[in-house]
Amino acid sequence: MANRVALIDYGAGNLHSVHNALNAVGADVKVTADPEIVRKADRIVLPGVGSFKACAHGLEGVPGMVDALTERAEMGGAPFLGICVGMQLLASRGLEHGATPGLGWIPGEVRLIIPSDPAIKVPHMGWNDVAIMPHARGHPVVEEGEAYFLHSYHFAAEDPHHIAAMTDHGEGLVASVVRGNILGVQFHPEKSQAYGLETLARFLEWNP
């Protein structure tokens, strides 16, 4: 089991909590903004807190980082986990504070949550169910459970087969996306207690 994990530092992630959670499940974590470390990593975790636009610009602002992520994960097959806005950055574009290109690894766009019932509050904040899509049952990482969410925008994936799990907040919202070795979760595993730690532990064992 190869567990050299590159935790990407681009000024937009909940690094301390994610680092602690990965350490707790046995990962050898390197917090890094160095593309060369990313190219040598066994696994990659991209966290993200804040707006899509700020996170996208922050990631683009690290010289060589997007190229290294693309080479090692999108093209090279290294297991990749995007957390919260780190998941959203997998999309083609985000619409927060204007349209901003994403990595484009999983086609779709990130849109404002607009509940049909005005009594439903935005942001979607707190504990909620993670319900696995029928085609994703048995996935090695994503399982049914309850996780902690905090977001005002949601990932609208173009291909339903890229949606691994859903949650409900007045409407169905994507809780997880997956395409091959690329995995994203909208919830915060580092804040989701046993369920979150178990998710990270399964990620470390995952060999897509």
UniProtKB/TrEMBL annotation:
InterPro entries: GATASE (IPR017926), Imidazole-glycPsynth_HisH (IPR010139)
Residue ranges constituting the Glutamine amidotransferase domain according to the UniProt record: 7-193
Keywords associated with the record: Amino-acid biosynthesis, Cytoplasm, Glutamine amidotransferase, Glycosyltransferase, Histidine biosynthesis, Hydrolase, Lyase, Transferase
Localisation: Cytoplasm
CDD domains according to UniProt: GATase1_IGP_Synthase
Molecular function terms, GO-annotated: glycosyltransferase activity
UniProt-annotated catalytic positions: 84, 188, 190
Domain of life of the source: Bacteria
Pfam families assigned: GATase
Assembly: Heterodimer of HisH and HisF.
Entry-linked PANTHER family: IMIDAZOLE GLYCEROL PHOSPHATE SYNTHASE SUBUNIT HISH
Protein name: Imidazole glycerol phosphate synthase subunit HisH
